[in-house]
Amino acid sequence: MKLTRRRALSTLGGWGLLPLHAWALAQRHQLSGAYGEAVFHTQNLQTFVRQIADRTSGGLEIEVVPNSKLKPMAEVIPALERKEIAFGEVLMSAYGAQHPVLGMDALPFIVRGFEDAARMWDVTRPTVRDYLAARGVRLLYAVPWPPQGLYSRMPVNKLADLKGLKFRVYNAATQRLAELSGAQPVTIAANNLQKAIEEGGVDAMLTSSTTGVDSQAWKAMKVFVDMRAWIPKNMLCMSEAVWTGLDDAGRQAIVQASTQAEANGWRLAREADDSAKKTLTDHKMEVNLPSVDLRRTLDLLGERFGREWVGKAGMGHAGALVDYYTKRNR
Ligand code: PCA
């Protein structure tokens, strides 16, 4: 057991060598994690809070409450605004309706891999940070999921193959793809996915290799098309009012641990993707790249989504997309 300041103070307090109020001075907060304990994002959050506890010698203790048990994801940002919770993790695109740049995080067929995703984050970070700051929410870091691929019971060679299937959706982009291909969209949060699959409620879905493994996709689906539709990110945020109430040591610990969590998280996402694709194959799933025809349809679809997004975002925000392309093609 590590001797943290809190434990040391509590021991000294217990021996009557320190007044108990010194122990009580440690700040304790909760962090609303959106995904399950085994998910690499949640493990990264655990490392993040451990580092903060160590760096402040127990002066700042944060408890990770996983699986949206503290707050459903849609309520996390408003709860941070109201200081109802101190820290919260959300999928950026879950807030796509609030700001176009958050929706851009799940714009299909724009990024082709993790390097592109990192470029997109470079370009969009200031806008996301300022948008949140205006709401009294501090952005700490963002970490990607592996690229989103298509799972299905049967091989998919064209979008029409999805027609009529129960297609699990988790944000506006998945919803729109389901509609465009004539599938039947079914909204299921990641933490209920495994059960829904077991019960036969999902014929197809678009998510990462890792979420496919966590939800044991192979129990219903046999094919994974690694089509890299987008690379969505989770972001960790905190209440600005809680930040203001921290001492310098606490703030410094958060800043340092955030930088480290972001770097670790991007590395973990790549590693998790490699090992998850292997696990899918071990469970006899076919892991394929899209056929030439499907690729062509997807690219056209990407253009269409891009145009729709620019139309809604307006030219002011569309600049972020242009900046991204300029950076990528340099
Ligand atoms: N997993 C989460 C979000 C993106 C991902 O890869 C999900 O499927 O809900």
From TrEMBL:
<dbReference type="InterPro" id="IPR018389">
    <property type="entry name" value="DctP_fam"/>
</dbReference>
<keyword id="KW-0732">Signal</keyword>
<dbReference type="InterPro" id="IPR038404">
    <property type="entry name" value="TRAP_DctP_sf"/>
</dbReference>
<feature type="signal peptide">
    <location>
        <begin position="1"/>
        <end position="24"/>
    </location>
</feature>
<protein>
    <submittedName>
        <fullName>TRAP transporter substrate-binding protein</fullName>
    </submittedName>
</protein>
<dbReference type="Pfam" id="PF03480">
    <property type="entry name" value="DctP"/>
</dbReference>
